[in-house]
Every structure is written in structure tokens, then in C-alpha cells.
Task: inverse folding
């Protein structure tokens, strides 16, 4: 019985790791005074914000129980959590020499979070539809 409990806790930890690692990497990169950027690509910074927060929101979706991952409430909550993390990170950057707190960076964070949460929802619903299961059968996945 004890091994089953440990196994479940390990599964929960593994599901949470992608979001935790992503949040930590975002924090580490935003702590740098200067980040390498390719020259001549306008908007590259905003694209990186969008991508990082899209991945963060998609990874946060794994924190929900299986039966909740495919619902609109999970989409909204993961996008909001990632967006709030974006606000915290922008405030953090205000205190990093050479960086600033930018409304437009936060906007890119939030749009990425919404896109990532939406993509996670779409993928989860596709998996359910492909397996021919309805909402009541999600706990069996």
C-alpha cells in the first residue's frame, strides 16, 4: 500500500516539474542584465516572451486532475496564473540592472499564456475525442 502512495506522489511531482522548471528558467533569464539576441529580427524579444509563457501555461495545465484538464475553467485559471507570474517577473526585472518593467512584455506574456492554455485545452480535447471518451470518462485516461 505504501508503494502505491509513493508512486502517486511521484506522478504528481513529475506532472508539476515542467511548469516549475519553466518558471525557474524564466526567472533566471529575466535576472540577466543582458540577453543574447539575434540582430535584425524585430519583435524577437516579444516572441520569446510569448513562447515562454505559452509553454508555462500549457505546463500548468498538467497540475489539474485529468478530469479537469479539458475544461474551460482550467484554461482560464492556467492563463491567469501564468499572466500573474508575468506581472511578478516584470516587477522583478525593474530591480535588475539593465532591465526594465514593461507593459508590452507583460502583454506578450499574457497573450502567450492564453495561447498556451488554449493549445493545452485543444490537445487534451483531441486526445479525449480520439479515444472516444466523454467528460465522464476522463478519469480513466
Result:
Amino acid at each position: 500500500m505504501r508503494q502505491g502512495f509513493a508512486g502517486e506522489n511521484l506522478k504528481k511531482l513529475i506532472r508539476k516539474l515542467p511548469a516549475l522548471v519553466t518558471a525557474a528558467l524564466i526567472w533566471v533569464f529575466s535576472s540577466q542584465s543582458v540577453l543574447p539576441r539575434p540582430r535584425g529580427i524585430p519583435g524577437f524579444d516579444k516572441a520569446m516572451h510569448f513562447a515562454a509563457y505559452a509553454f508555462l501555461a500549457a505546463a500548468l495545465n498538467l497540475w489539474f486532475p485529468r478530469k479537469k484538464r479539458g475544461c474551460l475553467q482550467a484554461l482560464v485559471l492556467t492563463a491567469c496564473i501564468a499572466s500573474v507570474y508575468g506581472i511578478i517577473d516584470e516587477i522583478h526585472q525593474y530591480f535588475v540592472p539593465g532591465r526594465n518593467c514593461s507593459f508590452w512584455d507583460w502583454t506578450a506574456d499574457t497573450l502567450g499564456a492564453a495561447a498556451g492554455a488554449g493549445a493545452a485545452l485543444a490537445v487534451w480535447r483531441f486526445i479525449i475525442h480520439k479515444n472516444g471518451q466523454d467528460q465522464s470518462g476522463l478519469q480513466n485516461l
